[in-house]
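Worked Example 4.2. Consider the chain below.
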Amino acid sequence: MSFHVVTGAGPTGTATALRLAGEGERVRLVTRRGTGPGHPGVERVAADATDADALTALVEGAASLINCAAPPYHHWLTGFPPLAAALLTAAERTGAGYVMLGNVYGYGPVDGPLTEDLPAAPTSRKGTLRAALWADALAAHAAGRARVTEVRASDFLGRAATSLFAFTVAPAVVAGEPVGYPADLDAPHSWSYVGDVAGTLVAAARNEASWGRAWHVPSTGEASARELAGLLATAAGAPEPALTAIAAADLARSGDEMLAEVEEMGYLYDRPLLLDSAVTREVLGVAATPLETVVEEIVRDLRV
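Applying the procedure from the previous section yields the following structure tokens:
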């Protein structure tokens, strides 16, 4: 039985902690308020993950430190740097393998499938930030100060998932209500199921081949927003979706601080976004959950 520390008890952090505990591992789940799932294998601890000394003490003796914590979306630019610095410091001091949950922002706009060997070419503030955080971690790895890896996901789907589609389109479609989405509604898009993200994080933490490089979460499907909405409506027995394309700038005028932050990421939705995960499937042995299974879970969750 190994000991692992997971930071953040959102959907992905919770899924990761439960996966490890369900496989007999000992898990310490660190959040500001000590929240998280009730499981005999999960120790919930209240701590500030930006406090490097406190975090180091909690990580001491752990095989891995898996970060699923993030500041609120509209506070990324100020909140992420101190969090990332403390996490990397704790990994350097303790020797725990550091697994970062990342995304595709650092690649910038790309025509064609995204592969892990693409250079960083961000065009947004949040993309520049994500690329810098990975560069800092990679430099520590190259210098022999830490073992680091990053697992990169696309838009989240699944129970309580936090993505623009998940908290705007999915509830409206299941309820039979009209909704706007800032995207090319017919562009194929890779989606990351929360359970598959957790599975990739755990696999990366356990595999010595994972350190010093990034991995893509195997996509649960490459459906367009319109196709995904249709699958949700069918599974829910709801009317045909009344889904319309809107401009990303409309979100900025909504008055919602977090939705306003989406505008600069509009390039992710106005063209195909396909995440190549062949290396993850081959080396880490992670397979994607069928999209139909994920859709059924979303419908059940929304109807609770």
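The domain at 3-153+193-218+276-284 is CATH 3.40.50.720 (Rossmann fold). The chain has eleven helices and eleven strands. Compare this with Example 4.1 before moving on.
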